[in-house]
Automatic annotation (TrEMBL):
It catalyses: a ribonucleoside 5'-phosphate + H2O = a ribonucleoside + phosphate. GO terms for cellular component: plasma membrane. It is an enzyme of class 3 (hydrolase). This is 5'-nucleotidase. GO terms for biological process: AMP catabolic process. The lineage of its organism: Eukaryota, Metazoa, Spiralia, Lophotrochozoa, Mollusca. PANTHER family: 5'-NUCLEOTIDASE, 5'-NUCLEOTIDASE-RELATED. GO terms for molecular function: 5'-nucleotidase activity; metal ion binding; nucleotide binding.
């Protein structure tokens, strides 16, 4: 009997609870001021998320991205565009 073992690396990424937060925000969850942005005190936002996802996808093979949802409601983006903005950015995330 011959047994063969094959290694398989899988990188699993998980996102959720975006709540239509497409722009960066400060530690209080409010919009970042130019001063906060300039001093690196801002977090989140779709640009950061997409940059990190693409960085991981370039440096790892077999990347699986799972999203638990809760993309909608929470900011003016949802009030104005309903789910269209969330759908637009989600499509960019999955590409």
């Amino acid at each position: 009997m011959v047994t063969t073992s094959l290694a398989f690396d899988l990188t699993i990424l998980h996102t959720n609870d975006v709540h239509a937060r497409f722009e960066q925000f400060n530690k209080y969850g409010s919009d970042c001021s130019e001063k906060e942005a300039g001093s690196g005190q801002c977090f989140g936002g779709v640009a950061r998320r997409l940059t990190k996802l693409n960085e991981i996808r370039r440096s790892h093979s077999n990347v699986l991205l799972l999203d638990a949802g809760d993309q909608f409601m929470g900011t003016l983006w949802f009030i104005v565009y309903k789910g269209l903005a969330a759908a637009h950015f989600m499509k960019k995330t999955w590409i």
